[in-house]
Specification:
The protein is mainly beta. The protein is about 5% helix and about 45% strand. A hairpin with a 2-residue loop joins strand 9 and strand 10. It is globular, with a radius of gyration of 14 Å. The two termini are about 15 Å apart. The mean pLDDT is about 95.
Length: about 120
């Protein structure tokens, strides 16, 4: 089975899935970024489908950009301008053409974490 990429966002400050977060996916080659997908999280903090599906999956270096600032403003968590966290880029590599890669974001107004999930 070909590989694919999924993600989700959890609001750790409120203890809820983060609904309405825009996420862009870029393929990275050297200093070049090519935008290949954009989506928004649903009520479960997930995307409705893989952000990189099996039919378009390729190994390589990628970057997910989470538009956290828009979400934090919409939920009243933004704080003073400029925001401490606005756009959060996460660059990662996918080397296994048969694997499911899952890159979640755990978000609060002043911090975030990520990991390779399942």
């Amino acid at each position: 089975m070909p590989g694919y990429l999924t993600t989700h966002v959890l609001d750790t400050a409120r203890g809820l899935p983060a609904e309405g977060v825009t996420i862009a996916l870029y393929r990275v080659s050297g200093n070049s970024h090519q935008k290949i997908a954009e989506t928004v999280t649903n009520a479960d903090g997930r995307t409705d489908s893989p952000i990189l599906a099996q039919d378009t999956f390729r190994t390589g270096t990628y970057e997910l950009v989470f538009f956290a600032g828009d979400y934090l403003r919409a939920t009243g968590q933004a704080g003073a301008h400029p925001l401490f966290l606005d756009q959060i880029p996460i660059r990662f590599g996918m080397s296994d053409a048969e694997a499911h890669y899952h890159v979640p974001l755990l978000l609060s107004p002043y911090g975030y974490s990520t990991y390779r999930g399942s």
